[in-house]
Amino acid sequence: MDWLDALILGLVQGLAEYLPISSSGHLEIFREILGIDIPKDDILQFDIMVHAATVCSTIVVLWPMFAGLCKSFFTFRRDNDFYYVCKILLSCIPIGIVGVCFKSYVESFFGDGLGVVGICLMITALLLTFAHYSDRIGGRMISASRGRDITWLDAFVIGCAQAVAVLPGLSRSGTTIATGIMIGDRRDKVASFSFLMVIIPILGEALLDTKEMLSDPAGSQGISWVVLLVGFATSFVVGCAACRWMLQLVKKGKLIWFAIYCVVMGVICLLWQ
After folding, report:
1. Cross-strand partners of 50
2. Over 80: is that where the pLDDT of 229 sits?
3. pLDDT of residue 22
4. Least confidently predicted of 3-17, 143-157, 161-175, 226-240
5. pLDDT tens for residues 232-244?
6. N or C: which end of the chain has fewer CB within 10 A?
Protein backbone atom coordinates (compact mmCIF):
# COMPACT_ATOMS: atom_id res chain seq x y z
CA MET A 1 0.00 0.00 0.00
CA ASP A 2 1.57 3.30 -1.11
CA TRP A 3 0.77 6.99 -0.63
CA LEU A 4 -1.47 7.14 -3.74
CA ASP A 5 -3.62 4.31 -2.37
CA ALA A 6 -3.80 6.19 0.94
CA LEU A 7 -4.82 9.38 -0.88
CA ILE A 8 -7.68 7.61 -2.68
CA LEU A 9 -8.85 5.77 0.43
CA GLY A 10 -8.64 8.98 2.45
CA LEU A 11 -10.84 10.71 -0.11
CA VAL A 12 -13.33 7.84 0.08
CA GLN A 13 -13.39 7.89 3.88
CA GLY A 14 -13.81 11.67 4.04
CA LEU A 15 -16.88 11.53 1.81
CA ALA A 16 -18.46 8.27 2.94
CA GLU A 17 -18.16 8.86 6.70
CA TYR A 18 -20.78 11.60 6.56
CA LEU A 19 -22.84 10.56 3.57
CA PRO A 20 -25.10 7.61 4.51
CA ILE A 21 -23.34 5.12 2.25
CA SER A 22 -20.95 3.39 4.73
CA SER A 23 -17.33 4.48 4.88
CA SER A 24 -16.12 1.05 6.05
CA GLY A 25 -18.00 -0.61 3.20
CA HIS A 26 -16.57 1.76 0.59
CA LEU A 27 -13.06 1.33 1.97
CA GLU A 28 -13.51 -2.42 1.41
CA ILE A 29 -14.83 -1.80 -2.12
CA PHE A 30 -11.94 0.47 -3.12
CA ARG A 31 -9.34 -1.84 -1.58
CA GLU A 32 -10.76 -4.54 -3.84
CA ILE A 33 -10.69 -2.23 -6.89
CA LEU A 34 -7.12 -1.06 -6.17
CA GLY A 35 -5.95 -4.61 -5.49
CA ILE A 36 -4.67 -3.80 -2.01
CA ASP A 37 -3.90 -7.06 -0.25
CA ILE A 38 -2.54 -6.44 3.25
CA PRO A 39 -3.03 -8.18 6.63
CA LYS A 40 -6.25 -7.48 8.55
CA ASP A 41 -4.30 -5.83 11.36
CA ASP A 42 -2.89 -3.30 8.89
CA ILE A 43 -6.35 -2.73 7.37
CA LEU A 44 -7.79 -1.94 10.79
CA GLN A 45 -4.84 0.29 11.67
CA PHE A 46 -5.35 2.41 8.54
CA ASP A 47 -9.13 2.48 8.95
CA ILE A 48 -8.83 3.72 12.54
CA MET A 49 -6.51 6.54 11.47
CA VAL A 50 -8.79 7.81 8.69
CA HIS A 51 -11.84 7.48 10.94
CA ALA A 52 -10.02 9.56 13.54
CA ALA A 53 -9.38 12.17 10.84
CA THR A 54 -13.08 12.50 10.08
CA VAL A 55 -13.84 12.76 13.79
CA CYS A 56 -11.47 15.74 13.85
CA SER A 57 -13.42 17.14 10.88
CA THR A 58 -16.60 16.88 12.95
CA ILE A 59 -15.00 18.83 15.79
CA VAL A 60 -13.87 21.58 13.40
CA VAL A 61 -17.21 21.92 11.59
CA LEU A 62 -19.28 21.77 14.79
CA TRP A 63 -16.75 23.70 16.88
CA PRO A 64 -19.11 26.36 18.32
CA MET A 65 -21.49 23.63 19.48
CA PHE A 66 -18.67 21.29 20.55
CA ALA A 67 -16.90 23.99 22.58
CA GLY A 68 -20.12 24.94 24.36
CA LEU A 69 -20.83 21.32 25.22
CA CYS A 70 -17.33 20.79 26.63
CA LYS A 71 -17.50 23.99 28.66
CA SER A 72 -20.83 23.06 30.24
CA PHE A 73 -19.86 19.45 30.91
CA PHE A 74 -16.45 20.05 32.45
CA THR A 75 -17.71 22.92 34.60
CA PHE A 76 -20.77 20.93 35.75
CA ARG A 77 -23.20 23.67 34.80
CA ARG A 78 -26.19 21.30 34.80
CA ASP A 79 -27.73 23.13 31.84
CA ASN A 80 -29.10 21.73 28.57
CA ASP A 81 -25.59 21.35 27.12
CA PHE A 82 -24.45 19.37 30.17
CA TYR A 83 -27.33 16.91 29.81
CA TYR A 84 -26.77 16.75 26.04
CA VAL A 85 -23.25 15.46 26.67
CA CYS A 86 -24.66 12.97 29.18
CA LYS A 87 -26.99 11.70 26.45
CA ILE A 88 -24.00 11.29 24.12
CA LEU A 89 -22.21 9.29 26.82
CA LEU A 90 -25.32 7.13 27.25
CA SER A 91 -25.40 6.50 23.50
CA CYS A 92 -21.80 5.24 23.62
CA ILE A 93 -22.59 2.41 26.06
CA PRO A 94 -23.87 -0.08 23.43
CA ILE A 95 -20.89 0.33 21.11
CA GLY A 96 -18.58 0.16 24.13
CA ILE A 97 -20.08 -3.24 25.00
CA VAL A 98 -19.61 -4.41 21.41
CA GLY A 99 -16.00 -3.18 21.41
CA VAL A 100 -15.13 -4.97 24.65
CA CYS A 101 -17.06 -8.23 24.15
CA PHE A 102 -17.25 -8.75 20.38
CA LYS A 103 -14.22 -6.90 18.95
CA SER A 104 -12.57 -9.98 17.42
CA TYR A 105 -15.85 -11.19 15.94
CA VAL A 106 -16.54 -7.82 14.29
CA GLU A 107 -12.99 -7.54 12.96
CA SER A 108 -13.40 -10.90 11.21
CA PHE A 109 -15.80 -9.25 8.72
CA PHE A 110 -13.16 -6.78 7.48
CA GLY A 111 -10.92 -7.63 4.54
CA ASP A 112 -12.99 -10.74 3.80
CA GLY A 113 -14.60 -9.99 0.43
CA LEU A 114 -17.57 -7.90 -0.63
CA GLY A 115 -20.43 -10.29 0.15
CA VAL A 116 -21.10 -8.88 3.62
CA VAL A 117 -20.65 -5.33 2.30
CA GLY A 118 -23.27 -5.88 -0.40
CA ILE A 119 -25.85 -7.27 2.02
CA CYS A 120 -25.24 -4.49 4.56
CA LEU A 121 -25.54 -1.80 1.87
CA MET A 122 -28.97 -3.24 1.05
CA ILE A 123 -29.94 -2.99 4.73
CA THR A 124 -28.69 0.61 4.79
CA ALA A 125 -30.89 1.38 1.77
CA LEU A 126 -33.89 -0.16 3.53
CA LEU A 127 -33.34 1.95 6.66
CA LEU A 128 -32.97 5.15 4.63
CA THR A 129 -36.16 4.33 2.72
CA PHE A 130 -38.10 3.76 5.95
CA ALA A 131 -36.78 7.06 7.31
CA HIS A 132 -37.74 8.87 4.11
CA TYR A 133 -41.37 7.74 4.19
CA SER A 134 -41.78 8.03 7.96
CA ASP A 135 -40.77 11.69 7.65
CA ARG A 136 -43.83 12.60 5.58
CA ILE A 137 -47.45 13.46 6.25
CA GLY A 138 -49.89 13.05 3.37
CA GLY A 139 -46.98 12.52 0.99
CA ARG A 140 -45.36 15.85 1.89
CA MET A 141 -42.08 16.18 3.80
CA ILE A 142 -42.51 17.67 7.26
CA SER A 143 -40.43 20.61 8.46
CA ALA A 144 -36.90 19.87 9.70
CA SER A 145 -37.84 21.44 13.03
CA ARG A 146 -40.91 19.23 13.51
CA GLY A 147 -40.64 16.40 16.00
CA ARG A 148 -39.09 16.22 19.44
CA ASP A 149 -35.65 16.89 20.83
CA ILE A 150 -33.57 13.80 21.54
CA THR A 151 -34.66 12.19 24.81
CA TRP A 152 -32.66 9.87 27.08
CA LEU A 153 -34.41 6.83 25.60
CA ASP A 154 -33.86 8.14 22.07
CA ALA A 155 -30.15 8.56 22.79
CA PHE A 156 -29.88 4.94 23.94
CA VAL A 157 -31.86 3.62 20.96
CA ILE A 158 -29.68 5.60 18.53
CA GLY A 159 -26.64 4.27 20.41
CA CYS A 160 -27.87 0.70 19.84
CA ALA A 161 -28.18 1.53 16.13
CA GLN A 162 -24.58 2.76 16.14
CA ALA A 163 -23.42 -0.47 17.78
CA VAL A 164 -25.07 -2.55 15.04
CA ALA A 165 -23.54 -0.35 12.33
CA VAL A 166 -19.98 -1.53 13.02
CA LEU A 167 -20.37 -4.03 10.18
CA PRO A 168 -18.80 -2.98 6.84
CA GLY A 169 -21.50 -1.72 4.49
CA LEU A 170 -23.95 -0.74 7.22
CA SER A 171 -23.63 3.04 7.28
CA ARG A 172 -23.11 4.43 10.78
CA SER A 173 -24.39 7.90 9.94
CA GLY A 174 -27.21 6.50 7.82
CA THR A 175 -28.28 4.01 10.48
CA THR A 176 -28.21 6.47 13.38
CA ILE A 177 -29.83 9.35 11.47
CA ALA A 178 -32.53 7.07 10.02
CA THR A 179 -33.21 5.61 13.46
CA GLY A 180 -33.55 9.07 14.98
CA ILE A 181 -35.96 10.20 12.25
CA MET A 182 -38.06 7.03 12.50
CA ILE A 183 -38.54 7.38 16.27
CA GLY A 184 -39.68 10.98 15.83
CA ASP A 185 -36.63 13.17 16.47
CA ARG A 186 -36.09 16.47 14.68
CA ARG A 187 -34.07 16.21 11.48
CA ASP A 188 -32.17 19.40 12.29
CA LYS A 189 -31.02 17.86 15.60
CA VAL A 190 -30.42 14.20 14.83
CA ALA A 191 -27.63 14.72 12.27
CA SER A 192 -25.40 16.73 14.61
CA PHE A 193 -26.09 14.25 17.43
CA SER A 194 -25.12 11.40 15.12
CA PHE A 195 -21.82 13.06 14.19
CA LEU A 196 -20.95 14.02 17.78
CA MET A 197 -21.75 10.62 19.33
CA VAL A 198 -19.00 8.88 17.34
CA ILE A 199 -16.20 11.11 18.66
CA ILE A 200 -15.61 9.21 21.90
CA PRO A 201 -15.45 5.61 20.55
CA ILE A 202 -13.39 6.48 17.46
CA LEU A 203 -10.83 8.67 19.24
CA GLY A 204 -10.58 6.15 22.06
CA GLU A 205 -9.81 3.37 19.59
CA ALA A 206 -7.35 5.61 17.72
CA LEU A 207 -5.47 6.49 20.91
CA LEU A 208 -5.16 2.83 21.88
CA ASP A 209 -3.92 1.94 18.41
CA THR A 210 -1.41 4.81 18.40
CA LYS A 211 -0.13 3.70 21.81
CA GLU A 212 0.48 0.20 20.45
CA MET A 213 2.31 1.62 17.41
CA LEU A 214 4.56 3.81 19.56
CA SER A 215 5.35 1.01 22.00
CA ASP A 216 6.28 -1.33 19.17
CA PRO A 217 7.46 0.81 16.22
CA ALA A 218 9.32 -2.09 14.65
CA GLY A 219 6.48 -4.52 15.15
CA SER A 220 4.35 -6.32 12.62
CA GLN A 221 2.73 -3.22 11.11
CA GLY A 222 3.23 -3.06 7.36
CA ILE A 223 1.97 0.50 6.81
CA SER A 224 4.42 3.39 7.02
CA TRP A 225 3.79 6.63 8.90
CA VAL A 226 3.86 8.53 5.58
CA VAL A 227 0.98 6.46 4.21
CA LEU A 228 -0.99 6.89 7.44
CA LEU A 229 -0.44 10.65 7.46
CA VAL A 230 -1.50 11.03 3.80
CA GLY A 231 -4.68 9.09 4.53
CA PHE A 232 -5.33 11.12 7.69
CA ALA A 233 -4.80 14.52 6.01
CA THR A 234 -6.95 13.68 3.00
CA SER A 235 -9.80 12.33 5.15
CA PHE A 236 -9.70 15.42 7.35
CA VAL A 237 -9.87 17.97 4.53
CA VAL A 238 -12.54 16.13 2.54
CA GLY A 239 -14.45 15.33 5.73
CA CYS A 240 -14.81 19.01 6.63
CA ALA A 241 -16.60 19.68 3.34
CA ALA A 242 -18.69 16.49 3.47
CA CYS A 243 -19.84 17.13 7.04
CA ARG A 244 -21.24 20.57 6.15
CA TRP A 245 -22.90 19.13 3.06
CA MET A 246 -24.55 16.27 4.94
CA LEU A 247 -25.97 18.54 7.63
CA GLN A 248 -27.81 20.47 4.91
CA LEU A 249 -28.95 17.32 3.09
CA VAL A 250 -30.54 15.88 6.24
CA LYS A 251 -32.44 19.12 6.88
CA LYS A 252 -33.75 19.02 3.31
CA GLY A 253 -34.79 15.35 3.59
CA LYS A 254 -32.71 14.10 0.65
CA LEU A 255 -31.82 10.67 2.05
CA ILE A 256 -33.83 8.66 -0.48
CA TRP A 257 -31.23 9.29 -3.20
CA PHE A 258 -28.59 7.63 -1.04
CA ALA A 259 -30.91 4.65 -0.56
CA ILE A 260 -31.00 4.20 -4.34
CA TYR A 261 -27.22 4.49 -4.51
CA CYS A 262 -26.78 1.88 -1.75
CA VAL A 263 -29.04 -0.57 -3.60
CA VAL A 264 -27.02 -0.17 -6.80
CA MET A 265 -23.68 -0.56 -5.01
CA GLY A 266 -25.02 -3.49 -2.99
CA VAL A 267 -25.97 -5.33 -6.18
CA ILE A 268 -22.57 -4.57 -7.72
CA CYS A 269 -20.79 -5.90 -4.61
CA LEU A 270 -22.80 -9.14 -4.63
CA LEU A 271 -22.13 -9.66 -8.34
CA TRP A 272 -18.43 -8.88 -7.86
CA GLN A 273 -18.25 -11.38 -4.98
Report:
1. none
2. yes
3. 92
4. 143-157
5. 999 999 999 999 9
6. C
Which residues lie closer than 8 Å to 104 by C-beta, 6 or more apart? none
Pairing of strands 140-141, 136-137: antiparallel
Range list of H helices, the chain: 3-16, 23-34, 40-61, 63-74, 80-101, 103-107, 115-134, 152-164, 172-182, 187-197, 199-215, 225-252, 256-272
Q: Give the relative orientation of helices 199-215 and 187-197 as an angle to the nearest 10 degrees.
A: 20
* 3-state SS class at 141: strand
Q: For residue 216, with 0-12 CB atoms within 10 Å meaning exposed, 13-18 middle and 19 or more buried, which class applies?
A: exposed
Q: Return the axis-axis angle of helices 3-16 and 40-61, rounded to nearest 10°.
A: 50
- Quick one: what percent of the chain has pLDDT higher than 90? 63
Tell me how far the alpha carbon of residue 37 is from its chain's centroid. 24
Alpha carbons 136 and 139: distance in angstroms, whole number: 6
Q: What is the pLDDT of residues 19-53, one digit of tens each?
A: 999 998 999 999 999 998 888 778 888 988 899 99
pTM: 0.88
Distance CA 124, CA 143 (A): 23
Report yes or no: 12 and 31 within 8 Å, Cβ to Cβ. no
Q: Which residues have CB under 8 Å from 64's CB, separation 6+?
A: none
